[in-house]
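Sequence only, no structure available. Ideas?
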Amino acid sequence: MRNIEIERRLAALPTAPIAAGGLIAGFGVAIGTGSRPLGGAVLAACGLTCLAIWRQRDPGRIAAGLTVTGLAAFAFSHLLGDLIGAWPAVLVVSGLTAAACWRWSDSRRDPARVSPAAPAGSP
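Reply:
I predicted one. C-alpha cells follow.
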C-alpha cells in the first residue's frame, strides 16, 4: 500500500533549491575534499531526489526534460568555467537550472495535492 502522506509531502517539495544546491554542493565537496567522485555522489544524490519527485508529480516528458537540463548544466559549467571561472560558472548554471525547475515543475504543483486536509468539522 502506498503512503499517501509521504506522496503528498514529496509533491509539496520544491525541486529548484535541491537541483541548484546539488550543483553547488557537489562542486564544493569536490573542491573541498579533492575528491571528484565524492562531489559527484553529492550531485547524483540531489539529482536522483529531484528525479524521484518529478516522476511522482509531473508528466514523464517534464521529468525527462529537467533531468537532461541538469545533466546539460553540469556539462556546460565545465565549458563556461574556462571563460568566467569555476565558481561563477557553477553559480550561473545553478541559477539557470533552478529557474527551469521552478518554471516547468515547482510552479505547477497541484495545490489540492499539496495543501493539508482540512480538520474534521471545518466549514
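DSSP finds six helices and no strands in the chain.
Hope that gets you unstuck.
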